[in-house]
Design brief:
mainly alpha, 3 helices, extended
Length: about 70
Amino acid sequence: MSRRGNCLDNGVMERFFRSLKAEKLNHLSFMNHQSVVCEVENYIQFYNYYRRHSTIGYLTPHQKYHELKNAA
């Protein structure tokens, strides 16, 4: 961990939550907590297994993980 005030500490998580809010949650209304949990879990599944990321060569994180795991 770096010291307080360093904006690069949580860069990955901040980017994920920005994508979650912009792509999924901003346009929805929820009746209860369970519906929010279900939508977030569905988005995480989509984000890791189907959504292609340009920074890792237009692969999904799951594909990149297995590529790196097989290379090691």
